[in-house]
Design goal:
- With 125 residues, the chain is an alpha/beta fold.
- Helix content is 48%, strand content 13%.
- The protein is built from 6 helices and 3 strands.
- Helix 3 runs antiparallel to helix 5 and helix 4 crosses helix 5.
């Protein structure tokens, strides 16, 4: 498990994303989900797959969704934004969770989106 954690724990990830946004001229006080799209969803097919999941799952706003392996939280935030649901993301990487938390606060989505460093094999709730 330590080997997996080390592989998926890039250092200073949040600041790297912020520097990338600045380099392309983004105003950090007006960052949107779409601005984060290039770095936000690591899974195969990215946002296309997230949209398909939403369509197939028939989520309703009163549901609370768990996103296992959330990375930096792109799918987690998009699920909440598009469905109105509360969404909790978990990932093994503390660095990913730190970046996910900070990006979520940057977007003002922290009321409906939360993150925990955790394993799907040992959930904290």
């Amino acid at each position: 498990m330590k080997h997996i954690h080390g592989y998926y724990s890039p250092k200073d990830l949040y600041n790297s994303i912020i520097e990338g946004l600045k380099k392309v001229g983004k105003d950090l006080s007006r960052v949107t989900l779409d601005d984060l799209q290039p770095v936000d969803e690591f899974h195969i097919r990215g946002d296309v797959a997230t949209k398909e999941l939403i369509k197939l799952a028939n989520f309703t706003p009163e549901m609370h969704i768990l996103d296992v392996g959330c990375g930096v939280g792109g799918s987690t935030r998009r699920l909440s934004h598009r469905t109105g649901c509360c969404v909790t993301g978990i990932d093994l990487s503390d660095e990913y969770i730190d970046a996910a938390d900070k990006l979520t606060r940057l977007l003002g989505m922290q009321e409906r989106v939360r993150f925990h460093a955790a394993s799907a094999l040992d959930l904290p709730f």
